[in-house]
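User: My instructor asked us to take a sequence, write out its structure as tokens, and then describe one feature of it. I'm not sure where to start. Here is the sequence I was given:
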Amino acid sequence: MSLSWRGAAVAPDDELPSPETWEPVSVPGRPTAFAGADAVAYETTVSDPRSGADEHVVLALRGAYAHTRVWCNGELVAESDSYVTPLRVRLPEAEEYRLVVECRAPEDRFGGLHDTDQLPPERRVPGIWWDAALETYPDPYVHAMRGRPRRTEDGAAVDVEAEVVSDGPVDDRLTFSVRPTGEVRGGGMMDRARVETESGSATVSHTVDVRDPSLWWPHDIGSQPRYVVRAKLGEAEHSLTTGLRSVGYDDGLSVNGEPVRARGVTLLDPTVEDVERAVAANATLVRVRAQGVPPAVAEACDEHGVLLWQDLPLTGPGGFDMDRGRELAASLTAHLGHHPCLACVAVHDEPVRPYADGLGSGTLDRLRYRFRAWRASYNDAPAETVADRVEGVPTFPVVGPPGIDPDAVTLYPGWRYGDVSDLAWLCDHYGVGSVVAGFGAGTTADDDAQAYQARVVRAVAEALRRRESDIVVLDSLRDVADAGTGVLAEDGTEKPAYGTLSDSYQPTQVVLSDPTPGESDIVACHDRPSGATVTVEWDHNGNRKQAEQVIGAYGRVTVGSLTLEAGDELTLAAAVEGQVVKNEYRIEGDI
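Assistant: Let's start with the prediction itself. The structure tokens for your sequence are:
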């Protein structure tokens, strides 16, 4: 049921908000009129929506940022401190409902990126960002449902938890079913579990086995079949959509037991369109950095076969409440667990202040870098403790720069410090490169700046692929203001680096080991689960050569070498499995 809302900036106190005036607002949304406010109240009035056999009314909020209180007819009925999970509020019986929802800016460390100036004020407005609706149900009914798919020795299974609510005693059977959607092959499964409870709520846990499952895969490996899981009690039911898969990290990322190399992009302001843009750039993973993922974005990742790297909303230096972090990690992964796209969870993003900005590439600069990295210590025990509460997917407790021994490293040579040639030194000296959570360069609308960004993006992306990094993530896909690190402008307009990234992220691609004047190898990178014969052709200032090589699954092979000079133009082409990809270079001086 849709609702008409009014809003007002209010004082963040403990009283029912009573502003002098209310103004119409769109919910869900982020009313820009309230940018900069510490607290915003939203108010709506609606007649009792129940009809027929309905006995319960539920206010369902998604993305109520960040600390939320809900009043119904003047009575405080709910509070929440986790916008990343849904808030479902059972309302008392009434002929009319006056609902007031107050959303406050974060009161702890878990506001994430929205509690920093890395996003503009209009993106940080306290509000109901994703969805708000009134729902009605008979008695008893299934109030909420969670699911987690996994592979088993006999096929696959979905572990389901269903919360049953009733005004009286219940002694019945809850029917669970798993059925394929669309044209997915295979039949459905059905099972029952007993429900015995007094009035109130009870949680029923059950596992539904799926024989001969159709597995969900990243888009460059396979298809994305999905299943609808239903829990039915009498005439009431609750459902969710999932995909059957397993994911792990043990000497590399794996999906369904098969090794996977992920090519990713960071989303600072995630939208469904960004997921589609990531796919068009040949990315197989998106990292939603230091914030909750909108439900529509997670669903788009499921649909398009894009792995989801989900951060907790925790970024920047400073301690945090471990118990609060553990609760948040558990609830976030329980809420997202049914999404087959969910590939990993990170806890603390960039936990130390940048220590190398502005350093060059000389010997003294490297000594300064090493000294500053040594001083930038970080105690990872709290983040590790929080990560222990994540179930079903790999975790990267600490995401940050070299020198603090992060689980996933962020590397910005050529932008924050040094030049691209320093990447090899950073990786070798600090033993990093298997999981790269961020690389790239900032830019403005200036043509020269954008050309420089494209060169840095290409050089680092291709170097990390040559080094056989398991996960490589560009920071970032799209700007959130007039300038930034995005390879797309805020409105989605492509910068030169977007096309460069798309070429560099081809599953099979041929690259230069060093795209600067001097000697360079020609290296074929093959990120596919089976080997192939690749035919490589290179056109160097009009001189063409060709070579054929057998390359193994997820292999790297040198197919030739060149002597390059400034101003040279080079086109590399690779034909494999009936497809042809190209990679074009114009050799500059130092990048």
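For the description part of your assignment, you could build on this observation: The mean pLDDT is 95. Try explaining in your own words what that tells you about the chain.
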